[in-house]
Each structure stands twice: as structure tokens, then as C-alpha cells.
Design goal:
The protein is mainly α. The chain is built from twelve helices and no strands.
């Protein structure tokens, strides 16, 4: 029971640290191009966790030769998914992207069930359904903003890639989480920066680069580290469901740090998410 409770705490902490990224990234985007910022955030995660990895010996086993297929899959999918998402963003509305991005939760559960044979109870499926509905309401900007086109297909494909990536990471979660984040951050960050330079983006002033790297270490590095720890005890589907509270935390942090005020749909979605959280808690702790 204690292991399950600590795993839930890790998942919520991972979501909280990632949610901090939302308001501060909005501020950094005023000075740093989007693809370049994504690369810097991932790179900050890799560099920061590299320092942690070298300075504190992990009690978990290191990645071995048998882990290579999942490690390569994790890195490749982490590179492909953002590229697909960028194509999607360029071809469809931001509201459409936000709505369809919620499919990642469902994709993670489906891949966990179909490919990795992870047990998913009917209660967890109900929780995932509630989470998906709440996330859709939170990101919904009107019926006129939603439509299915080629851009929508790219966004869905990105979500499927992240679903597979979450499960690849799950297969490595018994190993050193610091080493996993180090590999994920450095390779994905380098790939994103290369794409940014090829797209004609510029690095920007150093005064904004350093905060971006620091934000990446906190919101990507530490967040992914805690996410992996949660996965090792909960599995991919449950961890993804708990982690999906991050959009709500992102809105809350935006209210605190940059003065944004959400509309009625936020509170409706929050009520549904609260029901989902109660359902997930009963399912997670009851399955011990």
C-alpha cells in the first residue's frame, strides 16, 4: 500500500513540475523561437540529470544491452513525435491541437494493453475516460475551432508516438531513472535544436538561454525522473492517467504567476477531473 501511495505522489509531483513549465515557457517564447525552446528544455533536462547522475550513484541498475531496443525506441519516438506535432500545428488550429493531444492518455493505455500486456481494469478505463473528457473540456474553444484535416492526423500520430514512447520508458523503469533522463534529454534536445537551426530559428540572447536550460532541468528532467519512478510501481497506463492532471495545474500556475483567469469551462473540467482522481485512487490503492 505504501509503495502505491508513494508512486501516486511521484506521478503528481511529476505533473506539478511539468506544469510549472507552462507559464514560464509562455514568457520565454516572447524571446526564444518555439522549436529552439523545446530543444533547450530537453537539453537542460539532459545536462542537469547528467550532473545528478555523475555526482550521486544510483541504487538502481544501469541500462544494459538487453535494454537497447527500448532505449532506441524511446529516443527515436521522442524525436519523431515533436516533428509530427509541429506539422500538425502548422496545418490546423491551436484549439484542435489541444483537443487531439489528449488522445495521448488513451494511446498510452491502448499500447500498454495490446502490445505490453499490461492489465487495465474496467475501473481504470472509466477513470481514463473521465480524464479525457475533462482535458477535452479544458482545451475546447468552440465547435467552430474543431475539424478533422491532415493537420489533425499528424497530431493524432504524434499522440500515438508518445503512447508508444511512454511504454518504452515503462520497460526501462526498473533501471536508473537518472541515466534514462540523461539519454532522453541529450539526444532529444540535440535533435530538436538541429531541426530548429534547419528551420531557420536562431538561438537568441544568452540571458534567455540559461533560464530555459534551468527550466528544462526542473520541468523536464526532474519531472521525467519522478514519472519513471511512478511507472516502475504503477505501470504505464495508471501513471499516464495520474500525470494527466498537469493541464489543470498549468492553468493554476498561470493564474498565480502571470495573472491569467480561466473561464467557466475550467471549473467544469476541474469537477470532472476530481471525480476521475477519486476513481483512480480507489482503483490504484484497491488493486494492491
Amino acid at each position: 500500500m505504501e509503495r502505491r501511495i508513494s508512486a501516486i505522489a511521484f506521478a503528481i509531483l511529476a505533473a506539478s513540475l511539468y506544469a510549472i513549465n507552462i507559464p514560464f515557457s509562455k514568457l520565454l517564447l516572447l524571446h526564444v523561437p518555439p522549436t529552439m525552446l523545446a530543444g533547450l528544455l530537453y537539453l537542460g533536462a539532459g545536462i542537469g540529470m547528467g550532473i545528478v547522475f555523475l555526482s550521486a550513484h544510483s541504487r538502481r541498475a544501469m541500462l544494459g544491452r538487453n535494454d537497447l531496443p527500448y532505449t532506441v525506441g524511446m529516443v527515436v519516438l521522442d524525436v519523431i513525435a515533436p516533428i509530427l506535432l509541429m506539422f500538425g500545428i502548422s496545418m490546423t488550429s491551436s484549439a484542435n491541437v489541444s483537443l487531439l493531444n489528449n488522445f495521448e492518455i488513451v494511446a498510452t493505455a491502448l499500447v500498454a494493453l495490446a502490445v505490453f500486456r499490461e492489465r487495465i481494469s474496467p475501473s481504470l478505463w472509466r477513470s481514463i475516460g473521465l480524464v479525457t473528457i475533462a482535458s477535452a473540456i479544458l482545451s475546447f474553444e468552440g465547435a467552430e475551432a474543431f475539424g478533422f484535416d491532415l493537420g489533425s492526423l499528424f497530431v493524432l500520430l504524434a499522440s500515438v508516438c508518445w503512447g508508444f514512447e511512454n511504454n518504452c520508458t515503462r520497460m526501462l523503469s526498473s533501471k536508473s531513472s537518472e541515466e534514462i533522463v540523461l539519454i532522453k534529454g541529450l539526444f532529444s534536445g540535440a535533435a530538436s535544436l538541429l531541426i530548429a537551426f534547419l528551420a531557420g530559428e536562431r538561438l537568441g540572447e544568452l540571458v534567455y538561454v540559461l533560464p530555459a536550460l534551468l527550466l528544462g532541468f526542473v520541468s523536464y528532467g526532474l519531472s521525467i525522473d519522478f514519472y519513471i519512478l511512478a511507472q516502475s510501481r504503477l505501470g504505464a497506463a495508471r501513471t499516464s492517467a495520474w500525470y494527466s492532471i498537469n493541464p489543470f495545474l498549468g492553468v493554476a500556475f498561470s493564474m498565480i504567476f502571470i495573472g491569467e483567469r480561466p473561464g467557466l469551462q475550467f471549473y467544469v473540467a476541474l469537477a470532472i477531473m476530481a471525480l476521475a482522481a477519486v476513481s483512480m485512487a480507489r482503483e490504484t490503492l484497491g488493486s494492491e
